[in-house]
Design a protein that fits this description.
The chain is α+β, with helices and mostly antiparallel strands. The protein contains 3 helices and 12 strands, in the order ββββββββββββααα.
């Protein structure tokens, strides 16, 4: 049985919700990264393929997220995160999640670019105006999120990560 299902969300549009209780650290779903967007295979908006459903990965690889993961909304107080295990990406529970709860992750983790947008997550930790680049987060939050960064991101942003560790006194 799928652990999640799509449903209208108070945060934005369609969200992804837990069918069952999911314990912290357990996998929620495996991400399907097979639809790579390239110049030869671009988004087809007529087939409901949109830029806001894309994920930006190592080496400027762009993937069109599939269902249900394409509906996972952002929260500034997320209950999940993404990690690559043996070459496949999974969404893991960051805290215990109850059946019926919306699955969210923080879009700034493993993220770059300079997109600005307004967050509607409604959490007490909401940062309201969001800058897409991880390294624009407050240093304390970068340090909190450091263990959640995916291996490809740490490799790609090695210098910035080393700088962050040095500034925190950890090496
Ligand atoms: C991958 S989609 C998430 C699913 C989306 N709710 C849907 O209906 O398909 C990403 C888009 O959802 C919206 N979104 C996600 N989280 C949001 C949040 N916390 N506040 C405002 N908009 C959000 C933004 O428009 C973003 O570009
Ligand atoms: Zn927020």
């Amino acid at each position: 049985m799928n652990k999640v299902f799509p449903k209208e969300s108070l945060i934005n549009g369609i969200g992804v919700f837990a069918h069952i209780d999911i314990r912290k650290g357990n996998p929620i779903l495996k991400i399907d990264d097979t639809r790579v967007v390239t110049a030869d295979n671009p988004l087809r908006e007529e087939d409901d393929e949109h830029e806001y459903h894309c994920d930006y990965l190592a080496g400027e690889k762009v993937v069109l997220m599939q269902l249900p993961e394409r509906h996972i909304n952002h929260s500034c107080n997320p209950n999940s995160f993404v990690k690559t295990i043996n070459g496949a990406r999974y969404v893991f529970a960051l805290s215990d999640i109850s059946a019926g709860e919306e699955i969210t992750y923080d879009y700034c983790i493993n993220s770059s670019g300079d997109t600005l947008w307004h967050c509607n997550c409604g959490s007490e930790r909401c940062r309201k105006e969001i800058h897409s680049d991880f390294f624009h987060l407050p240093i304390t939050l970068q340090l909190e999120y450091l263990p959640l960064l995916d291996s490809w991101y740490i490799e790609e942003y090695k210098t910035e990560v080393e700088h962050l560790l040095a500034s925190s006194g950890v090496s």
